[in-house]
Structure formats: structure tokens, C-alpha cells
Write a structure and sequence with these properties.
This protein is of the alpha+beta class. Helices cover 48% and strands 18% of the residues. The protein folds into three domains: 4-184; 246-314 and 317-325, Orthogonal Bundle (Helix Hairpins); 331-476, Histidine kinase-like ATPase, C-terminal domain (Heat Shock Protein 90), CATH 3.30.565.10.
Length: 483
């Protein structure tokens, strides 16, 4: 089944069916047990009445059994011989004997062949009642059948022992009909078999309707998502129900996802547009120089062409790194000394306009885990930015504490206005728009630096420096700390 409603209706119906079947069986068992116990109680009462007559030494033929038409009675002696039965009893099963005709025997009050000592022994026997008494022990119950006056039925038999004054022990089997129990159980079972399918149909229908109503907002969400997919309009949103259930949370989460996706697509489009714009200028300049050089070799500006080529190469490398970062590329976890990496980067900057002052602690290596190439790019971008804006001072310092390793790059330039300190980390953002593109760069350096820092589990922030310019602070977890 592909429909959630159908599966929910089927599941609910099966659960209810199992529950009702289990409850019905339990009810039938309890009802049967109670009615059987009642029949057993009736049989016990009848058996004790007859046993009382025997205990009073009443003769077998004089026993009052005519009133027991619904309660067949059979009396047996110690040898299992039938000595008395109720009137019209034609057949019996479930008792000690299936005989329904009394055999000749001594009267109930006639002493047997046992002498006084034997009778005394029986008096002391804890398993038999005293002479002239009815046993007070719980009777033995059995189920059987009896045919009375041509009618056969099921009975619950109770066996009660009685002892005459002469020490003769007799067993009275009296039965109570189970017709009431069978009729009641059959009626309840029939009602259950009739009502169960109807109830299951009702449960299935109600579940179907309730599930359809509950899933109606989901269908609205699906239709809107299909429309968004077809139109490619990420500005649309799915309807949010007024309820506070899981479907409402699903709709809100879907809209939040669409918002993030729309922002990501817009950012990607701006990125492509800005990248195309940035690439257009050096490509156009290089093409112009090459065309002029082809027509007039003596006018070819080789240094300019090389500069444009270098700029294109740098921009292409930056775009490639951003693409890898956006794709979720995870940095390496190679341990490296950040202080040594800073010294190495500064030592390679021989042509900088302003010499860089380096301060690295001598207490030990400032180790972090990460990609050497990417962290070197971060330090290089921060130094490039400081060189671009500094007047006379560019300083970099490395420090380590319990929270990790930090690198600070300071300059004495104009600094960054407080309201622009987050915006400068966006891609293709330049606050010095008055500068030429050759001097100002493409506006990707700080964006790359922050992305790399974030993916290394660190942070990159900007503040005001004591020298009056900008202070960029890179913080990374130590090598012994998980990212």
C-alpha cells in the first residue's frame, strides 16, 4: 500500500481487531468459568442434601430423589457399585461409574463385614468423614453427560462423601446442567462475531477520515513544493497550518529550508556575476595588450600583460578555493606550528611596501591541527590586507593560551568602521571602491580567510588596533583539542 491513509487505517483496524479478539476471549473464559462455578455450586448443594440423607441412615430406596429432575444423582459404595440413582436416569458419564441401575446391596444403615476395630480405624482415618456425617472437604468436580427421560445434556458433577452410622462410606455424584452456561457463552460469542466486523469497519472508516483530515496540510505542502519545483521560484512558501503539531513544524522547517536555499542560490548567482565582472577586466586588458602587441610588437606591454596574467591566476585560485570550501571540503588534521608558519610567510614577502614586524613566543611551539596550505593562505591574505591599508606599521604576533592559539595582524591605517566590520568578510566586498581594481584586489581575501578559519574550528574577527588601524584576530583550537 502506497497510501499513508490506507496503511494507517489498516494498522488501526488490525490493532483494534487483536485487542477485541483478546478481550473477547478473556470475557468468554471468565463468563464460562463463572457459570461453570455456579453450576458446580448447584451440584454441590444437591449432592450434600442427598449425602445428608445417607448420613442419617436413610435406606437407598427411600432416598428423596424425585425432586432432582434437573440434577441427576448417582450413589456408589466403597467398592464402586451403584446403590442408588435418580428417577428417569438413563445414561451417565463423568462419574465413577456409567451404571444407571442399582445393584442389590445392604441397606444404608446395615453394618458391613468390618469389625469394631476396623470401624475404629476408619474413624481415625483423616481421609474419610466420621460415622453418620457428611464430608466437609471440597467436593471433586467433573464434567460429563447424562440422559434423563430421553434428553441428553452436559452436566457439572460434584462428588461428596457421606458415612453412615455403621461405617459405610458412600459417594454421591450430583449433576447440575450446563445449558445455561453454554447458552450464555454462545449468545455472547455470537454477539461478538456479529459486532466485531461492524466495529472494525467503523474503526477503519473513522481512521481513514481522521487520517485524511490530518494529512490534508501535507498534501498542500506537497502541491506547493511541486509548484516551486516546476516554476523554480524559490520565493514561494508552503502553507503553514495554524496547529502546533508535527505537520505545522514540518511546514515551518520547509519554509526555513526554502529561505536558506533561496539565500544560497542568490548568493551563488551574485558570486557568479561578481566573478564574471572581476574576470572581465583583466581578461579584457590582457586581450587588448596582446592585440596591440600583435599589430605593433614594439608597443607590447610585457610587464602589464604579466601582471594581468598573475591577477587572473590569483583570482582563479581564489575562486577554486571558495568552490572547494562551499562543497564542504574538510581540512586536513596535520599538526603544525603556527608560529613557524607565520615566520615562513613573512620571510617570503621581500617586496612588501612596509616591513612586517613578527612576534612569536619562545616558550614552545604554537601547534594546531589543519591544512598547511589553507592556513598559509589565511595569513597571507591578512598580511596583504594590512599592507594595502597601512601607513607605516604592519605587525603580526602569535600567542597561545588554554583556549588555543591566536594570530593578530595590526596596521596603522584608517581602520574599519564598526558598522562595516562584518560586511568586509562578505565576498567581493571592498570598502575602498575609489581604489583601482589593481590596487584594491577582488574582495575575496577576507572572505576566504574567514571561511578557512571557520572550517578549522576557529574564528576570525576585526577590531580597532592600538596604532589606530585595524586589528585582525585569528583564533584556532590547539593541537590537543578536538575541533
Amino acid at each position: 500500500m502506497r497510501s499513508v491513509r490506507a496503511r494507517a487505517a489498516l494498522g488501526a483496524t488490525l490493532v483494534v481487531a487483536l485487542a477485541l479478539i483478546g478481550a473477547g476471549l478473556a470475557v468468554l473464559m471468565v463468563l464460562r468459568a463463572n457459570l461453570t462455578d455456579q453450576a458446580g455450586l448447584q451440584a454441590e448443594v444437591t449432592a450434600r442434601e442427598v449425602a445428608g440423607q445417607l448420613a442419617l441412615d436413610k435406606a437407598y430406596g427411600a432416598l428423596d430423589l424425585d425432586d432432582e429432575e434437573d440434577h441427576p444423582v448417582q450413589v456408589t459404595d466403597e467398592d464402586g457399585r451403584v446403590v442408588a440413582v435418580s428417577q428417569d436416569l438413563e445414561a451417565i458419564s463423568g462419574t465413577d461409574s456409567g451404571v444407571v441401575r442399582p445393584v442389590p446391596s445392604a441397606p444404608a444403615g446395615t453394618p458391613g463385614d468390618d469389625d469394631d476395630d476396623d470401624r475404629d480405624d476408619r474413624d481415625d482415618d483423616g481421609g474419610r468423614p466420621a460415622r453418620g456425617e457428611v464430608s466437609s472437604d471440597d467436593p471433586d468436580f467433573t464434567n460429563g453427560t447424562a440422559t434423563v427421560d430421553g434428553h441428553t445434556a452436559d452436566y457439572r458433577f460434584a462428588a461428596v462423601e457421606a458415612t453412615t452410622s455403621t461405617g459405610v462410606t458412600l459417594t454421591v455424584h450430583a449433576g447440575a446442567p450446563l445449558a445455561t452456561e453454554q447458552e450464555a457463552v454462545g449468545t455472547v460469542r455470537g454477539a461478538m462475531l456479529t459486532g466485531l466486523p461492524v466495529l472494525l469497519v467503523v474503526v477503519a472508516g473513522v481512521t481513514w477520515l481522521v487520517t485524511r483530515r490530518a494529512l490534508r496540510p501535507v498534501e498542500g505542502i506537497r502541491r506547493e513544493m511541486a509548484a516551486i519545483t516546476a516554476s523554480e521560484d524559490l520565493g514561494r512558501r508552503v502553507p503553514e497550518p495554524d496547529s502546533r503539531d508535527e505537520i505545522a513544524r514540518l511546514a515551518r522547517t520547509t519554509n526555513e529550508t526554502l529561505t536558506v536555499l533561496e539565500a544560497s542560490v542568490d548568493r551563488q548567482r551574485r558570486f557568479v556575476a561578481d566573478a564574471s565582472h572581476e574576470l572581465r577586466s583583466p581578461i579584457a586588458s590582457l586581450r587588448t595588450q596582446l592585440e596591440v602587441g600583435a599589430a605593433h610588437p614594439e608597443l607590447l606591454d610585457v610587464p602589464g600583460a604579466v601582471a594581468d596574467t598573475v591577477r587572473l591566476q590569483t583570482l582563479a585560485a581564489d575562486l577554486l578555493l571558495l568552490a572547494r570550501l562551499d562543497a564542504g571540503e574538510k581540512p586536513g588534521r596535520t599538526p603544525l606550528d603556527l608560529g613557524a608558519l607565520v615566520r615562513e610567510e613573512v620571510s617570503q614577502r621581500l617586496g612588501d611596501r612596509i616591513p612586517v614586524t613578527v612576534s612569536v613566543p619562545d616558550t614552545g611551539p604554537c601547534e594546531v591541527n589543519g591544512s598547511r596550505g589553507q592556513l598559509a593562505r589565511v595569513i597571507g591574505n591578512l598580511l596583504d590586507n594590512a599592507e594595502r591599508h597601512a601607513d607605516r606599521v604592519v605587525a603580526v604576533s602569535v600567542g597561545a593560551d588554554a583556549n588555543g592559539v591566536s594570530v593578530e595582524v595590526r596596521d596603522d591605517g584608517a581602520g574599519v568602521p564598526p558598522d562595516e566590520r562584518e560586511r568586509i568578510f562578505e565576498r567581493f566586498v571592498r570598502l575602498d571602491d575609489a581604489r583601482s581594481r589593481d590596487d584594491g584586489g577582488a574582495g575575496l581575501g577576507l572572505a576566504i580567510a574567514r571561511d578557512v578559519a571557520t572550517r578549522h574550528g576557529g574564528t576570525l574577527t576585526v577590531d580597532g588596533a592600538a596604532e589606530g588601524g585595524a586589528l585582525f584576530r585569528l583564533r584556532l583550537p590547539g593541537a590537543d583539542r578536538p575541533h
